[in-house]
Predict the structure.
Amino acid sequence: MTLFTYMKDRLLLIVLHVVCMVLLAAFLRLVGNDATVILLIIFIWTLIIAAYFTVHFVVRQSFFDRLSELSNSLEQRYLIAEVMDRPVRMEDVEYYRLIKAAGKSMTEHVTEVRGERKEYKEYIEQWVHEIKTPIAAIQLMCDNHKSDVTRKILMELEKTDQYVEQALYYARCEQVEKDYLIKEMSLSECVHSAILKNKQLLIQNGIQIQTEQLDRTVYSDSKWIEFIVNQLLLNAVKYRKQRQEASTIAIYAEAVRNGVGLVIRDDGIGIVESELPRLFELGFTGSNGRHNQKSTGIGLYLCKRLCDKLGLEIAISSIRNEYTAVTIFFPIGTLYKVQG
């Protein structure tokens, strides 16, 4: 609230005082009072009104400043009525009552929505676990009866399993901290596990994998990192150059400042430079996605979301029709031994 807005809000009251001053001055003049006395009365009246408006403005501004600070300190601002002091002024009490009623309604609505989302998440997790049973059974039958047909079925099964995993991790991404376990992990084991999971897809698409300098250990959750690497491998296969005889995906680790970078680089179709800042947005597929109907815009969003939850950084660099490189940065902290 500024002084201008305060005075503008009380413009009618100010006009009323001015009109009253003019009428009083006219009356006093008609009854024979001296002009000096009239001006003195008007002057004193003006001082009193000015003093009242000044004090009232300072008090109201202080009140609203406290409310603003209190609101900014809350994560859920709709709860402000529950923590603010009950006002004294009659008008403020009415506003307080309305805000409190609105906050109560919002709290009930938020609780209801959270309950529905929890039920939906539990349903998705249950569905994922149930659907994995027939997938594993079909995979076992294909392994026991190998042929060109079963190999194609296995490749489609891998895709199905990837989408099922994606659904599970998407349902869990809001509360990753309840499911992850940070410990020392081997980048080599994590990467090779992801490669093994996609072996049929890589073989069928003629993808060559090159791994270098992965003999490093970092601290993170191996299960979540494997999922992120898996999503990046799927993207590399999806956006390969279709007419190229053999595509290559290079996976290597490199030392960076205060940490280790895991790089997954492909020689695919690349990404338009103007689209790089938006790649981690939910549902964004870009120009490549318009040509590839299988794009969903969820994979990279999940990678970014999970990296944020794990305290990691992820970055993408690319040149159109040359390469795309995704780097996951693992920070290296200092451990101190506490002696009792």
Remarks:
- Residues 3-105 form one domain.
- The chain has two domains: 3-105, 185-331.
